[in-house]
Design brief:
Elements (H helix, E strand, L loop, with lengths): L7 H11 L9 H21 L2 E3 L4 E2 L4 E3 L6 E3 L4 E2 L4 E3 L2 E3 L4 E2 L4 E3 L5 E3 L4 E2 L4 E3 L2 E2 L12 E2 L3 E3 L4 E2 L4 E2 L4 E2 L4 E2 L4 E2 L7 E4 L4 E5 L4
Parallel strand pairs: 1-4, 2-5, 3-6, 4-7, 5-8, 6-9, 7-10, 8-11, 9-12, 10-15, 11-16, 12-17, 15-18, 16-19, 17-20, 19-21
Antiparallel strand pairs: 13-14, 21-22
Length: about 200
């Protein structure tokens, strides 16, 4: 009795889920199974949730997207969302946005907007809401509030960074690994630390 052959296709799917940029360089013989696989995942997601997905996107089956009416998720063209991400609308992604594995985004009531060609590394946390903290009521019983978060185009957000409600990150900015962003960041700025502070300008590189 012959041994069973290795399941290369399942392993390829797993690799794409965790490294989704590889999807955009697949040769035709791999696209022959990968595109129908993605088409089915995305069609099911759009049928179940208030999600709009542009052309030539990749969404890992292990990613969790939740969107109700008035808390839509809108995804532009050629975006990728990797495994173990959690997204809860309202969220709007421009074109060519990458969200790598393990990220957590919640748009609160006002939402998260992310511009074209922005890249978000693994395990980044972006929450567009906060809880009240008055001392005479348990925090979990207090109302939350939401100002929204805006992230510009061509922004690079490093691994394990955190972005709090009410922040605007300018175009072309770089947020260093592990930063906690609590204030607005200007265009082209490079920030690092906790809380994040400007340490440079991309135009000087």
């Amino acid at each position: 009795m012959s041994a069973s052959l290795p399941d290369y296709q399942s392993q390829h799917k797993k690799r794409l889920s965790w490294m989704p940029w590889l999807y955009f360089s697949l040769k035709e013989k791999h696209l022959a199974w990968a595109k129908p696989w993605q088409d089915e995942i995305q069609a099911t997601l759009c049928a179940l949730e208030t999600v709009q997905i542009g052309e030539q996107c990749f969404i890992a089956p292990e990613a969790q997207l939740f969107a109700e009416p008035n808390r839509d998720i809108k995804i532009g063209n050629r975006c990728m969302i990797a495994a173990d991400c959690f997204l809860h609308g309202p969220i709007t992604l421009g074109n060519e946005v990458a969200i790598n594995h393990g990220c957590s985004l919640d748009g609160g009531r006002v939402g998260i907007q992310i511009g074209d060609q922005t890249r978000i590394a693994n395990h980044v946390t972006i929450y567009a809401f906060n809880h009240g903290m008055v001392p005479d009521t348990p925090i979990y019983q207090q109302s939350s509030y939401s100002k929204g978060i805006v992230i510009g185009k061509d922004v690079w957000i490093g691994a394990q960074a955190g972005i709090v409600d009410g922040v605007t990150i300018g175009d072309h900015a770089v947020v260093g690994m592990g930063c906690i962003v609590t204030k607005d960041i200007p265009d082209w700025a490079i920030v690092a630390g906790n809380p994040a502070k400007v340490i440079g300008d991309r135009r000087d590189k």
